[in-house]
Design a protein that fits this description.
The structure is a single chain. The protein is built from 3 helices and 9 strands; from the N terminus they run ββααβββββββα. By secondary structure, it is α+β, with helices and mostly antiparallel strands. The strands form 2 sheets. Strands 1-2-7-4-9-3 form a 6-stranded antiparallel beta sheet, with helices on one face. The chain is globular. It has one domain.
């Protein structure tokens, strides 16, 4: 991942340490990945895997977050037709929006996902396998 694009305005300490950013990943590359979320064996996903060398899992809905991971690193792939406001995530009491091509990174397990009013739309996301030392270094930088 291009973590060098992280800026001070992406890093938050309140209510808990977390990163929330939507300008980290090139939109053209994201669009290619988005178009192929139904086939992780597609060449664009294979290239992504080879380029970034970070494990990941694709889930259909943000309710499926794997909270057993030491660091929770989510990358949202919001359905283009979903015009809802997207305030679906509550991190330790703070509402966050589920926006496309946005990252949420935290070690906090106090994450609640609001039920979707319209179950027609999926809320897919990628959960990346982010190492603890990489996460800790984000906060040392700022």
């Amino acid at each position: 991942m291009n973590w060098e694009k992280l800026k001070v305005n992406h890093v938050f300490e309140n209510p808990v340490k977390h990163i929330y950013a939507s300008t980290l990943f090139d939109i053209k590359e994201y669009d290619k990945l988005y178009e192929n979320t139904n086939n992780l064996r597609h060449a664009v996903w294979q290239e992504f895997d080879k380029k970034y060398k970070i494990g990941f899992q694709l889930y259909d809905d943000i309710r499926e977050i794997n909270k057993k991971k030491e660091v929770i690193c989510l990358w949202f792939f919001k359905d283009r037709n979903d015009r809802s406001g997207g305030e679906d995530i509550i991190l330790a009491g703070k509402k966050l929006k589920y926006f496309p091509n946005t990252f949420l990174v935290t070690d906090c397990k106090d994450i609640k996902i609001l039920e979707k009013k319209d179950e027609y739309f999926r809320r897919p996301f990628i959960q990346l396998d982010l190492a603890r030392d990489v996460y800790d270094n984000f906060f040392k930088r700022f």
